[in-house]
Amino acid sequence: MLVAVISLILLGAYVLGSFPTGYLMAKARGIDIRTVGSGNIGATNAFRILGKGPGTLVLLVDAAKGTLACAGLPTLAKAFGGLPPDATPATQEWMAILAGVGVVLGHNYTCWLGFKGGKGIATSAGVLGALAPVPLAWVVGVFIVTLAITRYVSLGSILAAAALPVAVALTGGSGRLLGVCGVLSALAICKHRANIGRLLAGTESRVGAKRAEGAP
Fold first, then answer.
1. How far from 81 is each of 33, 34, 74, 100, CA to CA, in Å?
2. Which of 39, 123, 177, 205 could join 173 in a cystine, given CB atoms 3.0 to 4.6 angstroms apart?
3. Measured between alpha carbons, how far is 69 from 58 in angstroms, rounded to an integer?
């Protein structure tokens, strides 16, 4: 029974995460966002290509996917008898963690676009909003300070991801939470491989800088 519940939570979270918000938002305007800007379907490229309003909406929806998966799916499982009413906090946390992993994987590797998706930053933030709001505040601070100093969104995202396990450890998070945050951190950094290359080469775009035509 428990295996079935875990499988359904993972599948439900993946399907929820796979909703390609940025792609659909751009498609409604006749744009294939995968062919412009950085080619990414996430909020950063949506801001760049579609503007502040649509970009903000993409950011909020992608983050909401993470929060809804972690807060909603385990609750549904419990309500429909998939988890016993007296399930321990550890069991409930495990279910929420699995939902968090599933929803980020769905966003990053959406089945609707050939298993290519975003970088998972906004969705991971939504997951943290449900699982670890205090560490989330820390990593948001790292992102804001880095962005303010360097004007590199990618560098802010990378350093925020790297700071996540540290923030969880310093705020007394459980070993389970620390482990999954380490996985989410590594996944986010891995999805920024191209950005890391451009940062090292000095060709990464800064916020507010004019982009050369055809630049990624």
1. 41, 41, 11, 21
2. 177
3. 17
Model confidence pLDDT, tens digit, residues 157-195: 999 999 999 999 999 999 999 999 999 999 999 999 999
Which candidate, 185, 2, 192, 169, places its Cα nearest to that of 100? 185
Q: What is the pLDDT of residues 27-77, one digit of tens each?
A: 999 999 999 998 999 999 999 999 999 999 999 999 999 999 999 998 888
**CA-based nearest residue to 67, from 2, 153, 131:** 131
Number of other CB atoms surrounding residue 36 within 10 Å: 14
**Phi then psi dihedrals of residue 215, to 5 deg:** -70, 150
CA dist., res. 12 & res. 82, Å (int): 14
Distance from the first to the final alpha carbon of the chain: 47
Distance CA 35, CA 145 (A): 30
- Identify whether 209 is part of a domain: no
| Residue 53 lies in domain | 2-201
**Is 92 within a domain?**
yes
Owner of token pair 């744009």: 31
